[in-house]
Each structure stands twice: as C-alpha cells, then as structure tokens.
Automatic annotation (TrEMBL):
UniProt entry tagged with the keyword Protease: no
GO molecular function annotations of the record: protein transmembrane transporter activity
Protein role: Part of the twin-arginine translocation (Tat) system that transports large folded proteins containing a characteristic twin-arginine motif in their signal peptide across membranes. TatA could form the protein-conducting channel of the Tat system.
Main location per the UniProt record: membrane
Protein name: Sec-independent protein translocase protein TatA
Keyword Transport appears in the UniProt entry: yes
HAMAP family: TatA_E
Topology in membrane: Single-pass membrane protein
Organism per entry: Corynebacterium crudilactis
Pfam families documented for this protein: TatA_B_E (PF02416)
Assembly notes: The Tat system comprises two distinct complexes: a TatABC complex, containing multiple copies of TatA, TatB and TatC subunits, and a separate TatA complex, containing only TatA subunits. Substrates initially bind to the TatABC complex, which probably triggers association of the separate TatA complex to form the active translocon.
Protein localization: Cell membrane
GO cellular component: TAT protein transport complex
Length: 60
C-alpha cells in the first residue's frame, strides 16, 4: 500500500470540511486532540500496571 499523496490528502481535507463545516472544524479537532491525549495516558497507565504486575510475580 502506497502512502497518501498530496492530492489524496487534499481530497480528504475537503471532504472533512464539507461534512463538518468550517465552523465546527476547530471543535472537532479539539475533541480529537483530547481523545488522543486520554487514550495515550490510558495506554501508559496500562503498561505501567503490566510492568508492576510482572515485577510482583518475579519477586514471588
């Protein structure tokens, strides 16, 4: 699969603008950013818990 070129990215951007409208676009981007931040923090927490759990099992 080849990476998306500039033409494909432009088409996707235009479709997003048409679907959400230019007024809602900043809100959508902000919500997406928050969701990604929460997702990343949850992944870090899960990894931290897994490491602690494996360390506990090694000690026992």
């Amino acid at each position: 699969m080849t990476p998306a070129g500039p033409a494909q990215l432009l088409i996707v951007a235009l479709v997003v603008i048409v679907l959400f409208g230019s007024n809602k676009l900043p809100d959508v981007a902000r919500s997406l950013g928050r969701s990604m931040r929460i997702f990343k923090s949850e992944i870090k927490e899960m990894n931290k818990d897994a490491i602690e759990s494996s360390e506990q099992s090694v000690k026992n």
